[in-house]
Design goal:
This protein is an alpha+beta fold. Helix content is 51%, strand content 19%. It has two domains: 4-86, no CATH class; 95-279, Tgt2/MlaC (Nuclear Transport Factor 2, Chain: A), CATH 3.10.450.710.
Length: 282
């Protein structure tokens, strides 16, 4: 089954046909689909009022399902196809895993020095590490849609990309704000067609449940491995989650409003940490 969704294509992984990138194993070689992936499809296909809009049919107003529900459904299908691919036997067999190893090393260093660095210090130290690991241009194009992206002026594209990059770094600086013995480990890789790779990782949290993250990666135009999506808990796509939010803002208020929204979120993340530290000094 091929769906038009967030795919891994040769044109920058923005809006391609999933089957163009995913491997097609034989029936004998095809592994069982993990239960959490099957559950994700069910959850993604729920309809709520935010997925509906009033439209006029033959002079009568009726509710109709709109794009977000379809996008979520096919995004979930994309996750299943990714997870059904054939795992690589050697966890660090390619440069893709090496990129994640370097990202992990930077995150652990920041976590262990979180208090002395503060939010601003963590942000500054993580910026080059995040920039070296992620393909932000490809992610932004997929989130806003390649069609809209091409309609933006060069200045708008630059400001949107910068705002999203700053927000991404700020989120990591906010989330990785301390260390209590956590470990970050690459588990394996899953190969897709056209060179796509999914690197599976685990955040070990001692006596708490581990957190599973999967990084969808491709080679950029320079031939370097870069992250183009993060699957939280192994199934929830960051790109798919943000796509609905960002496109909604653009439809209502335009791309300049989205840039302002992202910049405001960075300020909120910084101020929230300042408030937390003031209330709970360590």
């Amino acid at each position: 089954m091929c769906g038009y969704a967030y795919g891994l294509s040769e044109v920058g992984v923005a809006e391609g046909r999933i089957c163009d990138a995913m491997p097609q194993p034989t029936a004998a070689a095809r592994p069982a689909i993990p239960r959490e992936a099957r559950v994700a499809v069910g959850k993604s296909f729920r309809i709520d009022q935010s997925d509906m809009e009033r439209r006029r049919f033959g002079g009568i107003e009726r509710w109709s399902v709109v794009k977000p529900i379809v996008l979520r459904f096919f995004s979930a299908i994309a996750v299943i196809l990714l997870l059904a691919a054939v795992p690589v036997q050697t966890a660090h067999a390619s440069g893709a895993s090496a990129v994640i190893d370097r990202l992990h090393a930077s995150l652990l260093e920041v976590m262990k020095n979180a208090d002395s660095l503060g939010f601003a210090g963590r942000y500054k130290q993580l910026y080059p590490a995040i920039e070296a690991a992620f393909d932000h241009p490809t992610m932004v194009k997929s989130m806003v849609s390649i069609t809209r992206w091409r309609k933006f002026s060069g200045e708008q594209q630059t400001r949107l990309l910068e705002a999203f990059r700053n927000f991404s770094v700020a989120e990591y600086a906010n989330r990785f704000d301390g260390w209590s013995g956590e470990s970050l480990k690459v588990v394996d890789e899953i190969k897709g067609r056209r060179g796509a790779v999914v690197v599976s990782t685990i955040i070990g949290r001692g006596d708490k449940d581990d957190v599973n993250l999967r990084y969808v990666m491709h080679k950029n135009k320079s031939g370097k491995w870069r992250i183009i999506d993060v699957l939280y808990l192994g199934t929830t796509s960051e790109v798919a989650r943000r796509r609905a939010e960002y496109q909604s803002v653009i439809r209502r208020e335009g791309v300049d409003a989205l840039v302002k929204t992202l910049n405001r979120k960075v300020e909120q993340l910084a101020s929230s940490e300042q408030a937390r530290v003031a209330q709970n000094p360590r």
